[in-house]
Amino acid sequence: MTNFNNLFEMDDEQKKENNAREEWQGMPEFVQEKDEPYQKIIVRFESKEDVDEFARLIGQNISPQTKSIWHPKLDVGKNAGLRWVDGLDE
Question: Considering the entire predicted model, what is its pTM?
Fold first, then answer.
């Protein structure tokens, strides 16, 4: 594969040599499994005070814009720093 600094500055020969479709031929398929909940329930509240008490009891913030929550609270960024690294370059 030819080295290049900028995809938009490649000449026609470099573009032919760096064909993404050809590069990915034979690569294994990747399927991201959905992280589906075990169970979903609908909870209805009669007042803002009831919402505030529920939020306090479960230790989460619930605003008027909140449509759903995970319990326990979902740690969204827990895997953000993880990367797959090929050990062949060692």
Answer: 0.52
